Amino acid sequence: MALPREAPPGLSGRATATGRCDRMNSYGDQQSPRARARVPGPPAAAPDDEPSSPRFSDEGRPAPDAYRRPAGGRATVGGSAPRGSASVGSASVGGRASVGNGPGPGGAGRAPVGAGNASVGGRAAVGGRAAVGAPPAPPGYPGHGGTGGRASVARAAVRPVSPAVGGGPGLDGPDGPGKRGSAAKILNKAAKKRRRANILTAAAAVLVILLGAGVVGGTYFFDDVALPSPKTEDQSNVILDAKGNTLAKLGDQNRTVVPQAKINMVVQHAVAAAEDKNFYTHNGIDMKGIIRAAWNNFSGGDTQGASTITQQYARHAADLKDISYNRKLREAVIARKLESTYSKNQIMGFYLNYIYLGEGRYGIEAAAQGYFGKSVLTPAGSKNAITPYEAAVLASIIKQPEPTATHGGFDPNYNLPDAKDRWEYTLSNMLEMNWISQAEYDARKYPEVKKPSTGKCTTCAAGKPVGMIMRHVTAELRSMGITEQEQQRGGLTITTTIDPEVQKAAEEAGSRNSKKSAMHGRPKTYQAAVIGIDPSNGRVLGYYGGDDPDGIDYGGYLNGEGSGFSGSGQSPGSTFKLYTLAAGLKEDISFKTTWDGTKKRPDGTKINNAGADDNSVCDGKIKYCDLETATIRSYNFPFFWITHEIGMQKVIQAAKDAGIEHLVNNDGKMINLDDTDDATWEKNFSDEVGFGQFRIIPLEHAEGVATIVNGGVRHEAHFVKTVKRVDEKTGKLVAYKSEKLDGKRVFPADEMSNLDGVLAKYPAHAKNTLRNGRQAIAKSGTWEYDDGKDKHVGSGDTWFVGGIPQLAATVWVGGAKNKVELREAGGGDMFGSGTPAQIWEDFLNAVTKALNMKQESFPDRVETGDPNSKYANGQPPPPPPADPQPDQQNPGCQLFPRLCQNNDGGNNNGNNNGNNNGNDNGNNNGNGNNNGNNNGNGNNNGGDNGNNNGGDNGGDNNGGVTTFPTLPNNRGSDSGGGGGEAVQSPGG
């Protein structure tokens, strides 16, 4: 993930007496394109056509006059004899030239010329004899008798004589200290010798450099320097959410490699104008620049480099880091070989893709996007193309992209005055080289540059919970065949499945830091995970696995590299019953089957049932509880016996089919279900798997839940939608890898409609219905945990899972790092139907509102299975109670017992019988409503005289009983009893 860029620190290397830096600055860093060609010496302003390097900080700089003292590899005009060495390779020209050592006790020695070795840097044999005088050493300075060191540039040794200066002791050369001499006699002569030595030294250095690059082309040294292959520049990988917002840029370098042929020529010309205006005409080495730099370096002037664009790239490609003339010579040789192997345009392309341009931007494309929001690939003259003035700004930054302790650099955001001066210089060179017209030059105006990034990215994942998905993205890229090396090279644009609205809802619902969350204010030892998956395709739309993106991933338990698990999941409790039910439905078990809750396990232990007392289980029907009721009320005993009867392997297979890939046994060992078989499962698990004893990974459980929500069609949960990469020929992003959306039916549709039909009753049971009456399916789960502090056994893992047709939602709440006994805010035990259910409800309500989701319903329920399944073990229910006996005190009841039944025409059940049978018995109604008034048999009013209400004499129209008076037992009951029955009367 991309991190906020830190301000570049000042260089703090310590300059030593040998002119080297004990601690390398970014110049010597092989990854730092800021490194520029420098030779040892004080950082002084280089000529405008020469690139500079980062400079020493004030802390690491020697005293102002230190560079006039003896220092490694450099002889100053009229001065001391430096010591140390700086070598630039070796090449044999032939012959030996030896120039005498410093004077011994008797004075200056003379070097015989012939076959001798003497070095100015490197080894270049020069035939003949020569004696070269040296400037006098200052009195009292201890050291060698001459320059003492070797400034090697090819293979010729020049070791000048250093006669002693009168008045002080001579240098301690190889032959001993020089004698005192007369200063008056030799001062004038010494001055002449100094001038002559410096001229000869500078000329020799220039000659050797030229020889090393040109004449010595066929020698050992030239052949020994290998031509490196062009570097494949590392790029960043851009991670986007499903809406195209940037989540992260992964990789050490923010770079986008682009093809040279597509880069706007005005950009290429601007870079050449700023860095190497003769780039298109020289052969890789700028001779004039070398001569000028060498003269200044050896004569005590401003220390300079002489690197062309080709040499700069050669240094980068060959990974040359040391600061020495040896490196310069190798750089020159490689530059020549590059020029003879590649075209100018190719070399320019290599260079433009590698250079560093400040603010964390590598390569010209990243710089153009960062400073101007434009692409260098846009053709000149087109809308939003880079202008010559913008190109000059970019090119001017290359010299020193970032500020140091001694110079503000040329980034206009940090040092606008110097940036403008450099910009003027670049445009002037562009005009001189006819790369812009006079009119364009005259119309110049410094362009507006985008402000530097504050490091804050409103959509970026760095430091945010969404950053947790990066490890999942990395793992998926590997599974898609994108190797670790390819990921490191970068250049990939990865679009994820994460929907910003769903992600926001997941974080707000699950994070303790969100005031909207049911977790807000809970102890820090509590942790939640929230996962939302589109069940129709497996895309993970929202993922909350913790607040720290670099911490424990409570949703997937992947390690930071995405290469393996860093934890072992959580016990799913009753939510695992979804898979037990799926397996049972496949075995033709009906939800109407009954199960005996009093039956003990084969080992004699009792099966607990959600903490319920046996007398209350299934409303007192514990011995013949139906499976549907047991599912909604989370009783365990039917699920143990289903697993026991059909075999645990079938339950585990159903879980695997749905999406569970790993189960953890009681010893904490994670079993990969894809790589193991029934025998392994039987060894590691037990029938308790049927009600969720064994730990699982929440993300895998979320995939399984999505399969149930989707009616039995499984789609693998995934985070990556598409992967694109830059086409090397066009520079455009092209499709590379893509998600696989093919689903697989793993459970029959009718069985899933049956299961979903039962689960649809659960939200109302748990009092977690969704807004606007939206239909949902759900199941809670709780697994107990005893912390050992008291006799109370609490909850350790709590779940609420389910969803709507468009979104499957899985919520877990448990202990952070370690298990704890979970309690609600009021102090009671936490269950899945508590805080997890509230998080689930809040999450789905927020998503449906934010995305304005249409209300969709699950398919109509189709009841499947055999109510009399051979696997069910419920006892037969008791017979219904018998009808009460007739009242023996009523003589009418003894003669006509059917008239004495208490249940004749009540509200509930009497209507059916009265309506059908009462037609003959009074007013053709026989409804027996409420009190049976005027309707049917046994009216409350049926007095002795009938009164047309079923009395003695009034049976003509009302079907009343003609013989007997009031029958007080025949009143219409509100409850309807057993279903009142109209009595046919003799006169009906």
UniProtKB/TrEMBL annotation:
Keywords on record: Carboxypeptidase, Glycosyltransferase, Hydrolase, Membrane, Multifunctional enzyme, Protease, Transferase, Transmembrane, Transmembrane helix
GO biological process annotation, one example: peptidoglycan biosynthetic process
Pfam families registered for this protein in UniProt: Transgly, Transpeptidase
Residue ranges of the TM segments: 199-222
Record has Membrane as a keyword: yes
Comp. bias intervals (Pro residues): 875-884
MF-aspect GO terms: penicillin binding; peptidoglycan glycosyltransferase activity; serine-type D-Ala-D-Ala carboxypeptidase activity
Domain of life of the native organism: Bacteria
Positions with biased composition (Basic and acidic residues): 56-68
Catalysis performed (reactions): Preferential cleavage: (Ac)2-L-Lys-D-Ala-|-D-Ala. Also transpeptidation of peptidyl-alanyl moieties that are N-acyl substituents of D-alanine; [GlcNAc-(1->4)-Mur2Ac(oyl-L-Ala-gamma-D-Glu-L-Lys-D-Ala-D-Ala)](n)-di-trans,octa-cis-undecaprenyl diphosphate + beta-D-GlcNAc-(1->4)-Mur2Ac(oyl-L-Ala-gamma-D-Glu-L-Lys-D-Ala-D-Ala)-di-trans,octa-cis-undecaprenyl diphosphate = [GlcNAc-(1->4)-Mur2Ac(oyl-L-Ala-gamma-D-Glu-L-Lys-D-Ala-D-Ala)](n+1)-di-trans,octa-cis-undecaprenyl diphosphate + di-trans,octa-cis-undecaprenyl diphosphate + H(+)
Domain Glycosyl transferase family: 244-430
GO cellular component: outer membrane-bounded periplasmic space
Region feature Disordered, mapped onto this chain: 1-115, 135-182, 856-988
Residue ranges, compositional bias (Polar residues): 961-971
Biased composition (Gly residues): 165-176, 939-958, 974-988
Keyword Lyase: no
Penicillin-binding protein transpeptidase domain span: 531-814
Coiled coil: none
Compositional bias annotation for Low complexity: 77-100, 150-164, 902-938
PANTHER family given in the database record: BINDING PROTEIN TRANSPEPTIDASE, PUTATIVE-RELATED, PENICILLIN-BINDING PROTEIN 1A
Listed name of the protein: Penicillin-insensitive transglycosylase
Organism: Mangrovihabitans endophyticus
